[in-house]
Amino acid sequence: MDPIAGVPLLVSTSLKIAIMFGVVMLTVAYTTLAERRISAFIQDRLGPNRVGPFGLLQPIADGLKNLIKEEADPGTASKFYFLLGPVLAMGPALVTFAVVPFAAPLPTPWGVVDMIIADVPIGILYILALSSLAVYGIVIGGWASNNKYAFLGALRASAQMVSYEVPLGLSLIVVFMMAGNVTLTGIVWEQQQLGFWFAFPLSLGFILFVVSAFAETNRLPFDMSEAESELITGFHTEYSAMKFSMFFIAEYAHMLTASALMATLFFGGWDLPGTWDNAYWYQGELIRGFDASGAPMAAAPAVWKTLLTFAAFAAKTGFFLLLYIWVRWTVPRFRYDQVMELGWKVMLPTALAYLMVVSATILVLDQVGISGFYFGLALTGVSAICTVAFVFFLDRGRIMVGAAAPRHGRVGPRPTFGRGAMSSEGATTGD
Questions:
Q1: Bridge partners, residue 282, by sequence
Q2: Phi, psi (5° rounding) for residue 411?
Q3: Structure confidence by residue, pLDDT tens digits, 123-149
Q4: SS3 334
Q5: Is residue 23 within 8 Å of 31, Cβ to Cβ?
């Protein structure tokens, strides 16, 4: 079948934009409900269950409350930038999902419709560029509030973004080397052809990406820009009503995009095991792979395949959203110095070292002529060794230390209280 073109292409693209915008906003709204119910379960309480059956209408009630709630604008705030902050935070969060493929191509009477809004050649680079702009909304909002706590939260957010953007990018370079492509559709296709989801041959890259994504979305244990125990509520201290909600819509939308990226980059996106759902545009033809002679084999798109692969993509993305929520309510917040040390002293050198190891391994495997399934198997073994070394042996309290780290077998320096006083060991200190 041929790809859709002309007026049907315009209509289908408009429908995809409208439908996916609605799906993203609905998912964001009900992710807030899921977080409240899951946190209640973890803390042995009920959570919201009064509005609608099982509390399912609670997000709608919260949205209406914020729409009609009185806006409180600080008298000393910079009005224009105070209003611009939530907009800059929310905008990038909603447009980054445009380049994520969410299902197998859909056959229609007018041609095959790709289940992606915009399959642009720059793909993941587009996401990295736009998602990085979200921190400007936080910084401008904190600065324009003319509140010292909000401003400190904005400074923390900018420092954290710079610290973790580098290891995030380095963790993606290994994906680009494996796929030979920066488009997300191409990355899904390469995982289908390899027979391995990249989470296995690039396991340490996946861990680095997940940790960096938590930091990039300002979620616990990395919510240094909010840190209620230190900064009241951080950068959005002076915000209320719908402007306050826009920051949280942006946070959950970034969570959704990051979860979709984890599923796409490392778990095959909408792909399911087997070759029955493989589909990729190759020289104007939709193919499912190549035969033994290297000739392309035509794909057979079907509506049921599109629906099933969309369900698989939703399940994978939902799992990582659940991981976000689970970590928030089980892991305590880091100190700010620990966040900076983790980013610069652990994540960055580890990402660089892993990049060199993967590059050398790929070069060696190419030189000896190993490809396909065995290529992925060999790289999985190398990455497993790197992952074990990172998880179990890398730090062990040498860099990421607690507030009362032992020093030479003691907790803190030996206390002394002056001439003739009792030492910590009970002996009298004297001349």
A1: 285
A2: -100, 100
A3: 888 888 888 888 888 888 888 888 888
A4: coil
A5: no
Side-by-side strand order, sheet with 296-298? 280-282, 285-290, 296-298
| Residue ranges in 346-388 assigned as alpha helix (H) | 348-368, 372-388
pLDDT in tens, 152-208: 888 888 888 888 888 998 999 999 988 888 889 989 999 988 888 999 999 999 999
- CA–CA separation, 190 vs 176, rounded Å? 10
C-alpha Rg value of the chain to the nearest Å: 25
Which amino acid, 378? A
Residue 401 near residue 383, CB atoms below 8 Å = no
Cα separations in angstroms, 209 against 148, 280, 381, 386, 394: 32, 26, 19, 15, 17
Average pLDDT for residues 56-82, to the nearest whole number?
85
Q: Helix or strand or coil: residue 422?
A: strand
Pick the closest to residue 82 from 126, 139, 131 (CA basis): 139
**Predicted TM-score of the model (pTM):** 0.86
Q: Is 387 helix (H, G, I), strand (E, B) or coil?
A: helix
Cα–Cα distance measured from residue 369 to residue 385, given in angstroms and rounded to the nearest whole number: 22
Check whether 402 has a pLDDT greater than 60: no
Rounded CA-CA distance 416/425 in Å is 10
Q: Which residues pair with 406 in a beta bridge?
A: 411
**DSSP annotation string for 246-273:** HHHHHHHHHHHHHHHHHHHHHS-TT--S
Tokens found for residue 65: 């409350």
Taking each helix axis from N to C terminus, what angle separates 203-216 and 148-179, rounded to the nearest 10 degrees? 160
Mark out the alpha helices in 283-347 (DSSP H runs): 303-328, 336-341
Instruction: Calculate the CA 25 to chain-centre distance.
Output: 17
What is the C-alpha to C-alpha distance for residues 428 and 144, in angstroms, rounded to an integer?
58
Q: What angle do helix axes 241-266 and 79-95 make, rounded to 10 degrees?
A: 30
Nearest to 144 by CA among 226, 239, 216, 244: 239
Instruction: Specify the residue for token string 């942006």.
Output: 250
